[in-house]
């Protein structure tokens, strides 16, 4: 069998060709007349059916298949689609069926936001977090992204800053080396590599060495130990980032989030927060140019209305009234040739409904439409509902119905230029990741189609595929109904599908489902303490044999300490599970927000929800989280 590719095809197309040829055990040749096999071509004339990034996969006869794109991206996308469909069928005989595929990815930008730092339950342990991934582990994940025709990886290093002038940051140097390899591999396979940070982030050493430049109590932000006040430490902050932008000169875009750690103010900054954000935007764009870095710039609006109207304590708003209007003050000051990212109001309402009601249900705007209204480009909808900021969320949670709702909302009502997923610890989250990856390209996919595809990819035979598909459906149903029988069924079916030929992804999803099943059992109200103790020990012994959770069991090699940490982690997850179960529906009722608008709209909660007492407990730990109230 031959796989042939057009002359002078760029690296991403040739890389895709090699992946297909390796899978088919075929030889690779340049395109020539009269050749049978799989041929990849770029159209000499534009095919209006497929446009940019689109492709045609067509059977010419019983021994010939042709993949065509109007551009290199389209040709590569077509190759990966053929490869993915063959892998789903577990077939290495492309001529066993007739091909007639004409597709164009729905959103030109399809990005995944990956945060390799100690957060949300992974704590930098082993494979649970990309914090410690080798380049091989990164490649495994990037290959899955590219197989699904994703376009962009956005890396979020958090406080992981390396600068040779700060000796304590040398412990981060190896990460920079790995991440640069990640950037280079992204470019090799035809993906973009973006960097997301906050405007006032510095190395921790700089934070501790400059007490006069930091805020001891960040009343509106969620970070501590890495942010300085912009008005006082601007030059130091920018200089701390210079090495990063020089090191990653191939960066495609700098994405900047202004809330979270960025909300670190003194009195002067608080009097004019919009001025701070605008100044930071221009300063970072200039710094990129000084470093010889041609990266684009993306402004993360990141639920500014939520911060100003729900998150920031009322006492602070009264003291500094400009916090109430900081977004409207800022919009005229931002350059219009930058990108805009925000989470949709569906995500905001789902994740923060109780907090919004607790603050009197203030009106808010659809941030994605606000970006379009002001003419920013591109405008990205971040599928934030996938957020991993809770330890529980590193475990399997399909979000299939929720993802379909968000995808339809994006296509039919928001029409952004791109979509972005939010991930922290991918190993157990194949189902949620794959669901987002596929819907980013094709929002018309149904739950049944997605489940069928995942069953084919995860299982090693047809019997296993049936079991895996049933397990995924049971897992999805569990998160909606919270019926313990559903999680028990999912665990049993995943486990029964494991065999010597099972994929590592199936193994990790199975392990994560077992972990989740124990959390559900331990969170059962009224469980006798003796039974709880015995169940917890049984739980610990069960996962010790699972390499997926080596971070929780064997990274801490002294078992008494390992078990103590495990018990704390389990207690945290039990609280978080109850938080999800009682106050966060898996799918938002659209009657709450029936029509999106860039103007202020009040969420239409059922009357009984508005009248009920709201208890704010995000289940993170025993300390109050960033959503605090007077």
**Estimated share of beta-strand residues:** 5-15%
Largest beta sheet: strand ordering: 7-8-9-10-11-12-13-14
Dominant shape: globular
Provide the structure class. alpha/beta
Indicate the CATH architecture of the domain at 2-103: 2-Layer Sandwich
Mean pLDDT: 91
CATH topology (fold) name of the domain at 2-103: Chitobiase, domain 2
Radius of gyration: 25 Å
Question: Major beta sheet, specifics?
Answer: 8 strands, parallel, barrel
Task: Explain this structure.
This protein is globular. The longest helix is centred in the last third of the chain and has 25 residues, at 559-583. The model is unreliable at 618-630 (pLDDT under 50). The protein has helices spanning 11-24, 72-89, 135-147, 173-189, 204-209, 230-247, 267-271, 273-290, 304-311, 314-319, 326-330, 345-358, 367-373, 400-414, 430-441, 447-458, 462-481, 484-497, 504-522, 529-543, 550-553, 559-583, 607-611, and strands at residues 2-5, 27-30, 37-42, 55-61, 64-69, 100-103, 109-114, 152-155, 192-197, 253-257, 296-300, 339-343, 379-383, 418-423. It has 630 residues and is of the alpha/beta class. An eight-stranded parallel beta barrel has the order 7-8-9-10-11-12-13-14, surrounded by five helices. It has 23 helices and 14 strands. Helix 14 links the parallel strand 13 (379-383) and strand 14 (418-423). It has a domain at 2-103: Chitobiase, domain 2, CATH 3.30.379.10.
């Amino acid at each position: 069998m031959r796989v042939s590719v057009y002359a002078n095809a760029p690296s991403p197309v040739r890389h895709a060709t090699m992946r297909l040829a390796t899978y088919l055990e075929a030889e690779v040749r340049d395109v020539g007349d009269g050749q049978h096999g799989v041929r990849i071509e770029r159209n000499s004339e534009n095919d209006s059916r497929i446009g940019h990034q689109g492709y045609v996969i067509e059977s010419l006869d019983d021994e010939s298949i042709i993949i065509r794109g109007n551009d290199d991206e389209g040709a590569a996308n077509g190759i990966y689609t053929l490869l993915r469909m063959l892998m789903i069928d577990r077939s290495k005989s492309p001529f066993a069926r007739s091909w007639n595929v004409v597709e164009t990815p729905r959103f030109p930008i399809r990005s995944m936001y990956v945060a390799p730092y100690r957060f949300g339950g992974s704590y930098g342990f082993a494979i649970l977090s990309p914090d410690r991934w080798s380049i091989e582990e990164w490649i495994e994940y990037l290959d899955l992204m590219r197989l699904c025709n994703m376009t962009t990886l956005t890396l979020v290093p958090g406080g992981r800053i390396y600068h040779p002038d700060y000796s304590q940051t040398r412990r981060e140097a190896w990460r920079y080396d790995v991440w640069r390899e990640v950037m280079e591999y992204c470019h090799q396979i035809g993906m973009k590599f973006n960097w997301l940070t906050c405007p006032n982030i510095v190395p921790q050493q700089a934070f501790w060495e400059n007490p006069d430049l930091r805020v001891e109590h960040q009343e509106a932000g969620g970070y501590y130990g890495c942010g300085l006040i912009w008005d006082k430490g601007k030059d130091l902050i920018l200089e701390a980032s210079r090495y990063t932008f020089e090191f990653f000169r191939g960066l495609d875009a700098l994405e900047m989030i202004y809330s979270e750690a960025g909300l670190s103010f003194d009195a002067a900054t608080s009097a004019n927060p919009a001025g701070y954000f605008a100044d930071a935007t221009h300063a970072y764009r200039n710094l990129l140019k000084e470093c010889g870095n041609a990266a684009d710039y993306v402004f993360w609006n990141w639920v500014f209305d939520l911060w100003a109207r729900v998150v920031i304590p009322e006492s602070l708003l009264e003291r500094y009234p400009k916090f109430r209007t900081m977004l409207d003050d800022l919009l005229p000051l931002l350059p219009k040739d930058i990108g805009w990212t925000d989470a949709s109001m569906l995500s905001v309402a789902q994740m923060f409904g109780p907090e919004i009601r607790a603050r009197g249900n203030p009106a808010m705007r659809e941030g994605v439409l606000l970006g379009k209204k002001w003419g920013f480009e591109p405008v990205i909808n971040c599928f934030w509902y996938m957020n991993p900021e809770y330890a529980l969320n590193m475990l399997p949670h399909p979000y299939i119905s929720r993802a379909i709702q968000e995808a339809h909302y994006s296509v039919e009502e928001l029409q952004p230029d791109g979509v972005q997923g939010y991930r922290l610890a991918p190993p157990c989250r194949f189902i949620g990741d794959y669901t987002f990856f596929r819907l980013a390209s094709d929002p018309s996919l149904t739950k049944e189609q997605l489940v069928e595809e995942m069953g084919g990819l995860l299982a090693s035979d047809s019997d296993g595929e049936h079991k895996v598909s049933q397990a995924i459906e049971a897992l999805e149903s569990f998160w909606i109904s919270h019926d313990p029988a559903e999680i028990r069924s999912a665990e049993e079916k995943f486990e029964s599908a494991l065999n010597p030929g099972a994929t590592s992804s199936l193994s990790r999803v199975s392990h994560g489902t077992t972990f989740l099943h124990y959390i559900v059992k331990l969170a059962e109200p009224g469980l006798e303490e003796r039974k709880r103790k015995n169940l917890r020990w049984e739980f610990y012994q069960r996962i010790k044999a699972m390499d997926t959770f080596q971070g929780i069991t064997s990274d801490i090699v002294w078992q008494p300490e390992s078990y103590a940490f495990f018990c704390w982690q389990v207690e945290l997850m039990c609280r978080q599970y109850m938080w999800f179960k009682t106050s966060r529906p898996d799918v938002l009722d659209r009657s709450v927000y029936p029509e999106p608008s860039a103007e202020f709209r009040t969420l239409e909660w059922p009357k009984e929800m508005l009248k009920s007492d709201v208890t704010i407990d995000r289940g993170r730990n025993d300390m109050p989280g960033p959503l605090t109230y007077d």
